[in-house]
Write a structure and sequence with these properties.
This protein has 225 residues and is mainly α. It has helices spanning 2-35, 38-62, 82-104, 110-137, 142-152, 155-167, 173-198, 203-224, and strands at 65-67, 71-73. Strands 1-2 form a two-stranded antiparallel sheet.
């Protein structure tokens, strides 16, 4: 359990750093260039952040899934087994990551897209391992757990297509899309990942993992960007 919490903390740190360095900062720069005003540009990105939070609140409310602290949530959750709720929750969490990748490549800027995509790919490793461990603990067979974890990741390319779509239209859609993806990712980290890492009494390893993940992403953003 301590290893699982540490790995999830590492993934959370990478998501927070990716939101900051690869989404919010490029969004602020693009919005300022577009408007010629720093404050107006910041308001555009803030609007995107708010849209990302609203999107995840809607999905959290209307999609059946399960939290370890509060149990099954969402409509129809009583008709779905515990394993199914796990998979739906995992799939829900992969959506903002895919959106972030799509938005970051929407204007063909590799210095924005490559660090973010590399970070998400790396954090998917501990996240995927934690998912399989959770499914195994729920009594799912080894190969079935691997296949279910892999299938849940298919939401990321779908989210990437959505991200490209929302950021590839009007010029203002690009910084708004970056803010939306960042808001969705930060929401997931605060609402889901960090509480999950702290529920077993392993707060210190989880926090150290978060700091390590943040540092790795910051290095990747500097080295690749």
């Amino acid at each position: 359990a301590r290893m699982e919490d540490s790995l999830l903390g590492f993934a959370a740190g990478m998501m927070l750093a990716a939101s900051s360095f690869s989404l919010i900062l490029p969004g602020l720069a693009a919005a300022k260039e577009m408007t010629g005003n720093g404050a107006a540009g910041a308001l555009i990105v803030v609007a995107g952040l708010a849209l990302g939070v609203l999107l995840m609140l809607g999905l959290d409310r209307f999609t059946p899934h399960e939290h370890d602290s509060t149990g099954p949530c969402g409509p129809g959750c009583e008709r779905i087994g515990r394993v199914g709720l796990f998979v739906l929750a995992i799939t829900l969490h992969n959506l903002p990551e895919g959106m972030a990748i799509g938005v970051s490549f929407a204007r063909g800027e590799l210095d924005v897209g490559l660090p973010l995509t590399s970070a998400i790919a790396l954090q998917d490793i501990p996240e995927g391992l934690a998912v399989v461990m959770a499914l195994r603990a729920a009594g799912v067979g080894a190969w079935r757990a691997v296949l279910m974890a892999g299938a849940s990741g298919l939401m990321e390319p779908l989210g990437a297509l959505f991200g490209v779509g929302i950021a590839g239209g009007l010029a203002v859609a690009y910084p708004i899309g970056l803010g939306l993806a960042a808001g969705a990712m930060i929401f997931v980290v605060s609402h889901e990942v960090i509480p999950e890492t702290h529920r077993n009494g392993h707060q210190t390893p989880a926090t150290l993992g978060l700091m390590a993940g943040f540092a790795v992403m910051m290095f990747l953003d500097t080295a690749l960007g």
